[in-house]
Write a structure and sequence with these properties.
The chain has about 130 residues and is an alpha+beta fold. Helix content is about 25%, strand content about 35%.
């Protein structure tokens, strides 16, 4: 039985996600820092392996997740940076794993820049 494609996926298989952050300072002051962080983080983390651990704590299975660029077309990029709002957009081809990448990016970014707080995630960029 074929898997159902989610409604947010366009006919050509693409989708986009907007990740909205609230900031504790003017977001325009964070634009360069966030852009640099996104580019560097993606380059350093574009390949990920997930390790399964058995009951006796030995490595049970190692699975390579799809490379970041197998799903997304570019590093996250800023589409809004004003007042206390900073929004990132990610464009890509549908994959089961896109949410894993989004979680990794969101957690890593808010740890690296504590002045950001994840506010909202919008699928399909309001289209």
């Amino acid at each position: 039985m074929p898997s159902k494609i989610p409604a947010y996926v366009r006919e050509d298989g693409t989708f986009c996600v907007v990740v909205e952050f609230e900031t504790i300072q003017d977001a325009t002051n964070l634009r360069d820092q966030v852009t640099q962080w996104c580019n560097e983080w993606i380059e350093e983390n574009k390949t990920v392996h997930r390790v399964g651990i058995s009951d006796d704590l030995s490595v049970d299975d190692v699975e390579r997740l799809p490379d970041y660029f197998e799903i997304f077309t570019s590093p996250p990029y800023i589409i809004k940076a004003e007042d206390d709002q900073l929004w990132l957009r990610l464009d890509g081809m549908y994959s089961y794993w896109w949410r894993d990448w989004l979680a990794r990016i969101g957690v890593s970014l808010t740890r690296a820049l504590p002045e950001l707080r994840l506010h909202k995630i919008s699928i399909n960029c309001g289209e």
